[in-house]
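In full, the data:

***
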Amino acid sequence: MTSTALNPERRWVLALALLYVAFYAWLLVAGHGMPDVTDGNESFSIFWHAYNLFHFDIGRSLGITDESFSPHAAAHPYLYTHQGNFPRIFGFLIYVFGARTIESQVMATTAIIGTATLVLAYRYFARIAEAAFAAIYCALLMTDYVLYAEWHVVTDRVWSGFFVFALLSSMHALGGERPRRAQALLFLVGFGLFYGELTFALMLSAAAVVYAAALYRRRLALALRAISGLAAGGALAMALLFLQLSA
């Protein structure tokens, strides 16, 4: 006979998943699909950036963030030139696939990017500690309203947590069985970071350099690969932005 009982790790995962679904379903429903949280206005910005990319001539904006809120083509583009804005690309993609209200944008981004963030966080802490610690940490993290939960339902800010845990997970994966894939992921993380908020990108990449040096202090070649993958992605993002601005 085979036992159908869940092993301890699966129990932790199931409990965490139920808590996550219940907590964020309540937050989204209570907020009528657009919770009134700190920086919640940035969800509206991402929505309008996606709207502008979809409805107006990209040949005029060349893909740079268009800040105009006018429905008239003559008012476009009103360009934001200080840095890239990676989250609006995702906002545009889900807009194309039907998320054409602010409520659907918030719910889709929370369901996809928010959930991916918690999965990455759990996997990271389960790797460096154990399943019980990872589940407890993630439960505390995702229910901390002031420092985490309210940002989790903002379609711009939710990406900060995603990049943190994607970076940490990719760093560790570089020393595993698929280092090339891990380095490719670091490249993508670097691109997304530097085609976004530059202050956050600089702070996180500086922390990543220190973390890579500590993690692979006895395998310096891997530390250099991690740093070079991240730097290459960042360099491509900055080059693309400067090309767009120059054009």
